[in-house]
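Journal club prep — side note

Before the paper discussion, L.F. wants everyone to see what a predicted structure for a comparable chain looks like in token form. Sequence:
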Amino acid sequence: MNSMVPLDFNGPLTTERLTVRLMTPADTDAVHSYQSREDVCEYLLYAPRDRDAVAGKVVEASTLTRLENDGDFVQLLVERLADHTVLGELYFSLVSVEHECAEIGWVFHPDHHGKGYAREAANALLAIAFDEWKLHRVVAELTPQNTASVALCHRLNMREEAYFVQNMFIKGRWEDTGVYALLRTEWEALRTAD
């Protein structure tokens, strides 16, 4: 096994405007407010969830803090520091221990789009991934029709690596997948250039 594991999320992470932390059962209603929406779930792997389903997912997420094996993940809440408003969440999964690769994803409430929160939160998590955990590579896989997420990948300096046409059958239809990636060496170069 690679010596990089286990990777523990000891959070919370704090940025200029945000806290990125583990979910707790008290967050259920806030998470349900966006996971239950058709427009939010349009490009996700799951359909809108009822409150009971969200409650179960939040309880599960509240216990996941360690990335040790391929497929392990953390689901982290993003809230605004000023008033503790829940803005959305970040997903971070260990894709391959052997290849030191992880995947990042995000879901944000539409009321909070366009304010740079997703970029700020994702950058904080990427800093942990590359600077602390020393991962080699982080990818994002998304539906290319989700132009807001594609734009976020570009703002995170992730480059498009692949475009798979109709490779996933989701919710009764074929969907394309775009793959974006960032290497630790690229991350370090970006930090040096700042």
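L.F.'s comment for the group: The longest helix spans residues 117-132. Keep this in mind when we get to the figures.
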